[in-house]
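Support reply, case 0932

Customer input (verbatim):
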Amino acid sequence: MRQLPPLNALRAFEAAARHRSFKKAAEELLVTPTAISHQIRLLEEICGCPLFRRHPRPITLTREGAGLFPVLSQGFDSFAAAVEKLKGNKDRPLVIATTTAFAVYWLMPRLRLWRQISDVELEVRASETPVDLHDGEVDVAIRYALRPPGGVEVVKLCEDHFLPVISPTLLNGQACAAEEINRFTLIDFRSKMPNHADHVTWQKWLEAATGNRDKAKAVLGEAKFIRFSEGSHTIEAAIAGEGIALSSGLLAHKALSQGQLVAPFETTLPGMNDYALYLEANPRLELIQAFVGWIRDEMVDDADDPG
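Our regenerated output:
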């Protein structure tokens, strides 16, 4: 535990040393010169040595006072700068960290809706690497995972699902059974995220759609593939008519609702969950909770209108 002198005594000494005057220090701190003298006497008693030579005037610092002054002065400057930074945080953008795919396919199309209800600017930082909220650089992280990390506040936003999507031009109005899906190039998403590949694969989807593991394996054995490590690329490839993609329903929602893609099959696979992560100690907690609540409401609307 730190053993520090009273703050008023330190402030009185720092101001008097800076001005070389008890009177000017008193004017700055809105007290009397007698109060300044009393606080400095108290500090000298605690330190066990004189900090000023009071005669002849003007006052001057002793060797001990000259050693203490720059340390205190720098400390108070640091305190002031830190407080100004915190005050400035009220006006800075709300910083959101998320994946590139979520930023491009879910968040960006809805930013105009946020601006309709809030004047707070958003700064979106897209990266596949999870951020450390404790470093103070990010206010909210939107992550896709089986389960959320510990040590932070967590709000579950939605449960994702995966389904085949294809350009209506490529489908050309034709009916297509699951067993015939290899008529098209299969666009495959191989995520770098741990455990993702175990949950979402064409093999898993075909098994669910046909109810027959061997048949699914045979269909895939005759199929051609394009593989991507980024979910947004699978959606773009499908829109471009390169094949049929097994895509996140959350991320494909806009393209489905706008008719850029269609979902020719009812069978879906469960994906992971989307979570909002933040720190309860963040001074902008009320704003963060408003933003997270807005995202959750928008996702509920998406679920009610699957496109």
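We compared this against your earlier run and they match. Two observations from our side: The beta strands are 52-53, 60-61, 94-98, 122-126, 140-145, 153-166, 186-189, 225-228, 244-248, 269-278. The mean pLDDT is 88. Please reopen the case if you see a mismatch on your end.
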